[in-house]
């Protein structure tokens, strides 16, 4: 295995995450967009897969921490049967302990378009901008 510096050397990452957000509201509902619900159960669909290509680039070290920028385009798929998804760009600051390859925190933004079916049946895109933060603590 390479050194810790090699662990976050600039590179492109293919992203395919199985994402479970059962304890968090869907991104769209957090921003006032109507939630997509299962017509049978009336439960809100979860985001269950996120895919895309991201670039991870180290930017600096400070004390016990190392930092990198993670950015690229992603597509979020929900758990509905109709293959619904929406996409956008993401840019994050990622913080690592100097002595560990896993991240300690991630702060970022999402900027994308959310397809919304109108009353007349047509689809219009609504701009969706969000800030997020996650920690391992």
What would you note in describing this structure?
By secondary structure, the protein is mostly beta strands. It has two helices and six strands; from the N terminus they run H-E-H-E-E-E-E-E. Strands 1-2-3-4-5-6 form a six-stranded antiparallel sheet, with no helix packed on it. 6% of the residues lie in helices and 58% in strands. The chain has one domain (4-135).
Key descriptive features of the protein:
137 residues, mainly beta, six-stranded antiparallel sheet, 2 helices
What is the gist of this entry?
This protein has 137 residues and is mainly beta.
State the shape: elongated
Strand content of the residues, in percent?
over 45%
Coarse structural class: mainly beta
User: Spatial order of the strands in the main sheet?
Assistant: 1-2-3-4-5-6
Number of structurally distinct domains: 1
Number of E-state strands: 6
Order of helices and strands: HEHEEEEE
Radius of gyration: 17 Å
Indicate the multimeric state.
single chain
The average pLDDT value, as a whole number, equals 78
Report on the biggest sheet: 6 strands, antiparallel
Helix content: under 10%
- Low-pLDDT parts are 1-8, 17-25
Tell me the number of helical segments per DSSP (H or I, 4 or more residues long). Answer: 2
N→C terminal distance: 26 Å
């Amino acid at each position: 295995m390479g050194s810790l510096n090699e662990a976050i050397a600039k590179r492109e990452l293919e992203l395919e995450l199985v994402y479970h957000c059962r304890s968090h509201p869907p991104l769209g509902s957090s921003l006032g967009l109507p939630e997509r619900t299962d017509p049978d159960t009336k439960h809100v669909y979860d985001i269950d897969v996120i895919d895309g290509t991201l670039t991870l680039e180290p930017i600096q070290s400070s004390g016990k921490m190392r930092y990198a920028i993670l950015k690229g385009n992603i597509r979020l798929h929900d758990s509905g049967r109709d293959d619904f998804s929406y996409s956008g760009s993401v840019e994050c600051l990622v913080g690592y302990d100097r002595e560990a390859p896993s991240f300690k925190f991630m702060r970022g933004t999402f900027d994308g378009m959310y397809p919304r079916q109108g009353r007349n049946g047509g689809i219009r895109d609504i701009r969706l901008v969000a800030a997020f933060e996650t920690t391992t603590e």
